[in-house]
Design brief:
Layout (H helix, E strand, L loop, with lengths): L2 H18 L7 H15 L4 E7 L5 E6 L2 H13 L3 H8 L3 E3 L2 H7 L4 H6 L4 E9 L2 E10 L7 H19 L7 H29 L3 H14 L4 H9 L5 H7 L1
Antiparallel strand pairs: 1-2, 1-5, 3-4, 4-5
Length: about 240
C-alpha cells in the first residue's frame, strides 16, 4: 500500500468518524481532539488547535495537539489578535506563510510563532452557510506547507465537524446550540483540571497526563468528560488512572 493510499484511507476514516456522530450522542471534546490530532498527522504539520464560540460569541480553546499549542491559542485570545480571530470575524480562511506578513498583521503573536519555528499559519472557519461557530487552526514549519488541495481538504473536515456540532439543534432555537457549546466548554474545564490532577500525582507533563486520561476512559468504555469530572471532583482516585496506564 502506498503512502498516498494510506493517507486517503485515514482521511476516509476521519470523515466517517465525524459523520457517525451526526446520528448519536457524542463527546464533543473527544471528537474535536481527534479532528485536531488527525489533521496534524495526516498533513504532517507541527501543531493544530480548535476554538469554539461560547454563548456570548467569544472564542474559547476546546482542543489542541499539545499543551504548548493550547498556550499559543490562549495567547491569541488574550491579545485579541491572530489568525483565529481574523478567521472567526471574517468567516473566511486565513493563510499566512511569511514571517514578515505575520509581523505586520499580528505584532504581538508573531514572536510566539517564531520562537516555535512556525512560519506558516492557517485558520479554517467552522461554518455552515453564514453561521460561524469556531475556527480550526493549523501551524507548520518551513518544510510542511499546505498546498491549495490540502487546504481544501482541511476546510472540508472543518465543514463536516460543523454539521456534526449543529445537527442536534436543527429543529430547535439557536439558544439550544449556545447551551450545547457552553456545555462543551465547561467539559473542557473539567478535562484541564483532571490533567492537572494526573500530572501532579504521576509527576508527568500535561501532554502525558491527557494521554493517560484519555486512555483510561477508552479502556473502560467511558466518556472522557465523565472520567475527567470524577477526577476533578475527587470521586476517582488518580492512582487508578496511573495503574491502568
Amino acid at each position: 500500500m502506498t503512502t498516498t493510499q494510506s493517507r486517503e484511507i485515514r482521511l476516509g476514516r476521519l470523515f466517517v468518524l465525524l459523520a457517525d456522530n451526526l446520528v448519536q450522542d457524542f463527546d464533543i471534546v473527544d471528537l474535536l481532539h481527534d479532528l485536531v490530532t488527525s489533521c496534524v498527522d495526516l498533513f504532517d504539520v507541527s501543531a493544530g488547535g480548535l476554538m469554539l464560540a461560547d454563548g456570548g460569541d467569544q472564542l474559547r480553546v476546546l482542543a489542541a495537539s499539545s499543551e504548548d499549542t493550547r498556550l499559543l491559542e490562549l495567547f491569541e485570545l488574550q491579545n485579541q489578535q491572530g489568525p483565529c480571530l481574523d478567521c472567526f470575524h471574517s468567516g473566511a480562511p486565513v493563510v499566512s506563510t511569511a514571517v514578515a506578513d505575520q509581523r505586520r498583521r499580528w505584532p504581538a503573536i508573531a514572536p510566539q510563532l517564531q520562537s516555535r519555528r512556525i512560519t506558516a499559519v492557517y485558520a479554517f472557519p467552522l461554518r455552515l452557510r453564514e453561521q460561524v461557530i469556531g475556527v480550526l487552526n493549523v501551524f507548520s514549519t518551513p518544510d510542511a506547507i499546505l498546498d491549495a488541495d490540502d487546504r481544501a481538504v482541511v476546510q472540508a473536515l472543518a465543514d463536516v465537524a460543523t454539521i456534526s456540532l449543529l445537527q442536534h439543534r436543527a429543529t430547535e432555537a439557536s439558544e439550544r446550540l449556545a447551551t450545547q457549546l457552553q456545555t462543551a466548554l465547561t467539559s473542557r474545564i473539567a478535562v484541564e483540571q483532571a490533567k492537572g490532577v494526573i500530572a501532579q500525582y504521576a509527576s508527568v507533563d500535561m501532554d502525558r497526563a491527557f494521554t493517560m486520561l484519555r486512555g483510561y476512559a477508552r479502556r473502560n468504555q467511558r466518556s472522557l468528560t465523565a472520567v475527567a469530572t470524577e477526577l476533578a471532583t475527587g470521586r476517582l482516585d488518580p492512582g487508578a488512572v496511573r495503574r491502568a496506564d
